[in-house]
Amino acid sequence: MARAAERQPRPALHPNLVEVYRRKVANLEAALNDPSGRDEAATALRDLIDAVVLYPGSKRGEVRAELYGELAALLQLGAAP
Q: 0.90 cut: is pTM over it?
């Protein structure tokens, strides 16, 4: 059954996906560096993150975080072999 999952094709990515994310991150960086840009930074973050789910870790004081949304997808793409 694991082989069937391996044969499934990966979804095709939009050719401009990287550029879209690059612009969003650049906008976020500029907003974070501008003291008057906090509202813009918050909007940029909302565009990239849908949810953050926190789980207790195995040791006291440890927390595991799962990130959902466009930013999470981008980070997964960067980690893909």
A: no
